[in-house]
Amino acid sequence: EDVPSQTFDSKDYFCGKETFPVYESIFTEEGETIRKIAIEIEKPPQIEVHVWTIRKGILRHLYVEKLSKREFEGLPYFKLITRTTLSQWKIFSEGEAQISQMCESRVCRTELEDLVKVLYLEKSEKGHC
């Protein structure tokens, strides 16, 4: 039998925790790949964009910018990739800080890919939370 979905508001939940949309944009120019990972946060209402500049697999530059929803809506190329919880986003941010130091002088393609996978929530089985 179908379990009725929560329709109290438009928010999605995972194991009782609120989730937030995560977007990604990847483009290449002049031998560099610019990869942006963004999360839309409600309070304060803003978009936090993590920008990675990668050259030949080495993370050359990393910075974070905060934008208003209106500024973000004007940006091209972003697509919704998943929804995540704030605790997973914190793990992502902390891992990003470690990787940025580790990958200044060596290729870190797999580390960067694994870091993004942290944001994807595992579908929980009943009673798994």
From TrEMBL:
Coiled-coil regions listed in the entry: none
One GO BP: negative regulation of BMP signaling pathway
Range of residues in the leader sequence: none
GO cellular component: extracellular space
Location of the protein in the cell: Secreted
Highest taxon above the source species: Eukaryota
Keyword Disulfide bond tagged: no
Ranges for domain Chordin-like protein 1/2 C-terminal: 10-129
Keyword Phosphoprotein carried by entry: no
PANTHER family hit by this protein: CHORDIN-LIKE PROTEIN 1, VWFC DOMAIN-CONTAINING PROTEIN
Protein name: CRDL1 protein
Record gene name: Chrdl1
